[in-house]
Amino acid sequence: MKAMVLRAPGGLERIQREDRPDPGRPGRGEIRVALHGGSINYHDLSVAKGQMKADDGRVLLADGAGVVDSVGEGVTEFKPGDTVVSCFFPDWQAGPATVGDFRRTPGDGIDGFAQETVVLPATAFTRAPKGYDAVEAAAITTAGLTAWRALVGDGALKAGDTVLLLGTGGVSIWALQIARMFGARVAITSSSDEKLERAKAMGAEFTLNYKAEPEWGRRIRDWTDGAGVDHVVEVGGPGTLAQSIEAVRIGGHISLIGVLTGFSGEIPTGVFMTKQARLQGLIVGNRQQQQDFVRALEANNVRPVIDRRFALDDLADAFRYEEGAGHFGKIGVEW
Fold it and tell me: How far, in Å, CA of 186 to CA of 261, rounded?
């Protein structure tokens, strides 16, 4: 079978196609899945570029979806023909966070889903949303579940809340869809006026070009009549966190989920203390949260925004497209 692997020490030019042995029949508690799609995340890009070290020959992609070919003894949750989607943390089934690294994350610590067939424990998958194709289903695993946990699991989002989103990548656009699903009001930032218009068409109430207004935290507060927003989905990290703290309300919630501007920096601790806000780091979510997310998507007939789709053999080009940061929503890979 075909697989797209990364040769050490990494780099997009070191992504290669390989022929690998068929994984065979599933054992007890396992399912065999014919994969047909994946999606690209910033984490995958970091692995592919060699910024996050992976073993030589690692199969790439944390997100994968496909159809169950066969099931092993004892599997009752799935049957042949079911459409399934992978879990970012296949061992974290439910409950509070227990994982703080990527040793068991597909496409990083273990082989990922840029391949044609896998045999894995049934608990490494959930049912995919009904009617989704493989790329759409794969879009929920990392970016979608991160946004869901940030707003719903950790933030207890409710109708009428105000939400600030940074940028128009996969997590932020999913967060926009989730916020609108719950009846929340959304502000979103971008350096592209064209992307801001697209976000407005999807229900964003307030848009702001951060290149034109680098001190955007106060403008977001003005939008809320000076109170500040209830939730911030913070994907930038140290370069944007000070403005997010300025924008959040007293007692509000900031979900720190990205480090696009670096891994360390100064925090205005005095302002943060007076805001009495909750700053919570998070990495994706557990399998039970993904199952909850799938049910919510089906109940509200929400589908992901797929910016562009690439063939599996063009995986390196998909990463280059992600690197260019011109996308709106998710980048898919299909085969």
Answer: 23
Angle (CA) 202 177 300, round 5°: 110
Token look-up 């070290």 returns: 53
In the chain, % of residues over pLDDT 90: 94
Interatomic CA distance for residues 1 and 23, integer angstroms: 9
Backbone angles phi, psi at 207, to 5 degrees: -125, 150
What does the block give as tokens for 58? 């690692």
Phi first, then psi: give them for residue 280, nearest 5 degrees: -125, 125
Instruction: Read off φ and ψ for residue 247, nearest 5 degrees.
Output: -80, -25
pTM over 0.85: yes
- What is the DSSP annotation of 245-282? HHHEEEEEEEEE---TT-S-----HHHHHHHT-EEEE-
User: Helices (DSSP H) in the chain: which residue ranges?
Assistant: 42-48, 134-138, 145-148, 170-181, 193-201, 216-223, 238-247, 269-275, 287-300, 315-323
Closest CA to 333 of 57, 60, 120, 51: 60
Nearest to 113 by CA among 286, 332, 305, 288: 332
> Each residue of 180-201: pLDDT tens digit?
999 999 999 999 999 999 999 9
The token duo for 157 is 């989002």
Q: Are 61 and 107 in contact (CB under 8 A)?
A: yes
CB 153 within 8 A of CB 178: no
Helix, strand, coil percent values for the chain (each to nearest 5): 30, 25, 40
Q: Do 233 and 255 form a contact (C-beta atoms < 8 A)?
A: yes
Where does residue 321 fall: left (phi above 0), alpha (psi -120 to 50 degrees), or beta otherwise? alpha
- Residue 121 — φ and ψ, nearest 5°? -55, 140
**46 neighbors 60 (Cβ within 8 angstroms):** no
